[in-house]
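In response to reviewer comment 3 from the previous cycle, which asked for concrete evidence that the modeling workflow produces usable outputs, we include below a single protein chain processed end to end. The sequence was submitted unchanged, and the resulting structure tokens are shown without manual editing.
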Amino acid sequence: MVARLLTEEYGLVAGYVAGGRGRALRPVMIPGNLVAADLRAKSDSQLPFAKLELVESRGPWLSEPLPAAAIAWASALTASALPERHAYPSLYSALSALLTAICHAPSARGWAEALLRYEALLLRELGYGGDRPGAAAEWTDDLAAFDRMGALIERYCLADRRGMVMAARAMLRDRLARIAG
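The workflow returned the following structure tokens.
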């Protein structure tokens, strides 16, 4: 199985994980998990082999529909939009903080604004502008802001890869709309 890993120093890196679909590594291969990785390749042009060790699991939150959808969206967006081997330390830190907020906030109100801010940061880091979110009151509980940001992401970041990735965002939006009432 090929894993795509976001590292602070090297950016997005792909590596082949032997036995990644097996019983022992399946819990480690969950999107959003924090892992320690050892990547080795015989040449720079070869896909490296990766040995992964679980540092922090996001697995317990995958049984909750809203956090599961948010983790899936943030992971899919990051893996799809970022070019390989370009370091984005601010995105690495922001994604780490976002995933921690999703897992530990008592409700979506605690992380929804952080998700929108992460999306805006990703757009800016990739050179597509991206509005800087305003005050918290303007962004929290505002599905219109979520929809505006989604249109920008679909247009700029995911040009030909929209289908599956934007489906993860549509699921998240649907679940956010249910709690917004």
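Residues 115 and 166 are 15 Å apart (CA to CA). We consider this sufficient to address the reviewer's concern, and the full set will be provided in the supplementary archive.
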